[in-house]
Design brief:
By secondary structure, this protein is mainly α. The protein is built from 17 helices and no strands. The two termini are about 40 Å apart.
Length: about 475
């Protein structure tokens, strides 16, 4: 079958009524954003302690928190007026053109697919730690297969399940907090350890920024389901903002409890910091609660990553930037089922590598490059569409400061990544350069400009 025949078939399939449905509310947006990110509270963030001590860790936590608050402001303002799946990809399509949109789309897919693989690796490792006879790989395949099937069957059920398991995992952090009796003179919290100084000076804070991103990585994915919100102008801002507040609270509590229960030298190299903090309490209920919370946070993250990566791939296909065959919607379940199924073996293959640090580093680099571009797009969007020229579901306050903060902090994270993982950073840039060359010299001739641009916005200022 020719490419044109495939494109016609997909268009006909979708025109018969098979399309993404508007079923999501603020609760589901919260579940998507917090669900993807919460795993970062259970693991990974603690490497900020190894770089900057506990003091450098909390500074990195709040600085990166400022980055993500700025990102959510910019992301939500632009996303609330683009009723399309694809999030930052759709924004780049309208504000930066096809080549930039293609790169952002690929970065979205890899950011979430790699994070999904990392989540499965942690689940496999946890099951193995419970019983050495339980091999990790079967659990990796089983977990991803079940979550892929759930996403295949419908976004409403997927994110409703995510809300439940994310809420349970989030509550376990508070169980750990109150088990320490932090308000009591006999508290388990060792308060002098909360401020262990800066073992590597101010340079340690810069190094900690790379891992501070774990506290919030993926919250921007809320914009990827804009097309499936019942009211994009309400659901997206409310769900994303409440989600960001939830993460700021959760991140600060996580730092407080772990730093007060575990020596900073040990905490900086821990695989499961919250679980290790639970072990320090010697309360069996708390230990089991945090074990379950860690598992559920990984599952919620992987579930949301499947949702977001498939929406990015689906959007690119629907706009003809990649073969349009992937842009089909299931006639019964109204999901981008071909994109979901296609990306599943890719995530599993990265899970098979067992290279947790490499997989997550590529995910972080991909996300951070998107943040730099979002800072630029925030400035360009306001320049092209000043207030009053287009209806917004949400208006970012204090413009242009959120975009400027986002640009500066995202660039600092890339600098910090270069200091520790310069080979990974250069390899990622080389990979995206190769993707760009493939798009320009091979794929661009198949792009349909009439399919690519669908929004009917007012003409930009100056045009």
């Amino acid at each position: 079958m020719s490419a044109e025949s495939v494109n016609v078939a997909v268009r006909e399939e979708n025109e018969t009524g098979a399309r993404l449905v508007k079923v999501l509310g603020p609760m589901h947006i919260w579940a998507l954003g917090v669900g993807i990110v919460l795993v970062g509270e259970f693991m990974g963030w603690n490497f900020t302690v190894a770089k900057g001590g506990t003091l450098g860790s909390i500074i990195a936590c709040w600085l990166i928190g400022l980055l993500y608050v700025s990102l959510i402001m910019v992301n939500t303002e632009i996303g609330s007026v683009i009723p399309e799946a694809g999030g930052q990809y759709a924004m780049a399509k309208y504000l930066m053109g096809p080549l930039a949109a293609f790169n952002v789309g690929v970065m979205i897919v890899f950011e979430y697919t790699m994070l999904e693989a990392a989540d499965s690796l942690v689940v496999g490792a946890l099951m193995n730690s419970l019983n050495p006879e339980l091999q990790p790989l079967p659990w990796i395949i089983l977990g991803l297969a079940i979550l892929t099937a759930l996403n295949y069957r419908g976004v409403y059920a997927t994110l409703t399940v995510n809300f439940i398991i994310t809420a349970i995992a989030y509550v376990t952090i508070f169980i750990l907090l109150f088990s320490t009796q932090f308000w009591s003179p006999n508290s388990m919290i060792n308060f002098p350890d909360l401020m262990s100084g800066l073992p590597y000076g101010w340079l340690g804070i810069l190094g900690a920024l790379q891992f501070g991103i774990w506290f919030y990585l993926g919250i921007e994915g809320t914009a990827l389901t804009a097309e499936e919100c019942r009211s994009t102008g309400r659901s997206l801002p409310v769900g994303a903002m409440i989600g960001m507040v939830s993460l700021l609270v959760g991140a600060t509590i996580t730092w407080f409890v772990c730093s007060g229960l575990v020596q900073w030298e040990t905490l900086g190299s821990s695989v499961y910091p919250l679980y290790d903090a639970a072990l320090a309490t010697n309360y069996s209920f708390v230990i089991w609660a945090l074990f379950v919370g860690t598992i559920l946070s990984c599952l919620a993250s992987a579930n949301g990553c499947i949702n977001d990566s498939s929406r990015g791939w689906f959007s690119m296909a629907r706009d003809t930037l990649i073969p349009q065959w992937f842009g089909a919607v299931h006639p019964k379940y109204h999901t981008p089922y071909r994109a979901i199924v296609f990306l599943a073996p890719i995530a599993i293959s990265f899970g098979f590598t067992g290279l947790l640090d490499q997989v997550i580093t590529f995910s972080i680099i991909s996300g951070t490059i998107i943040y730099v571009l979002m800072g630029y797009m925030g400035l360009k969007f306001r320049q092209m569409y000043p207030l009053g020229t287009i209806e917004r579901g949400y208006t970012s306050p204090w413009h242009p400061f959120p975009s400027i903060f986002l640009l500066i902090l995202a660039i600092l994270v890339l600098v910090a990544t270069f200091l520790g993982y310069w080979i990974n950073l250069l390899a990622a840039f080389m990979f995206y350069i190769i993707c760009s060359l493939w798009f320009v010299f091979h794929r661009y001739k198949f792009v349909n400009p009439h399919t690519l641009i669908k929004a009917h916005w007012p003409r930009p200022k100056g045009y």
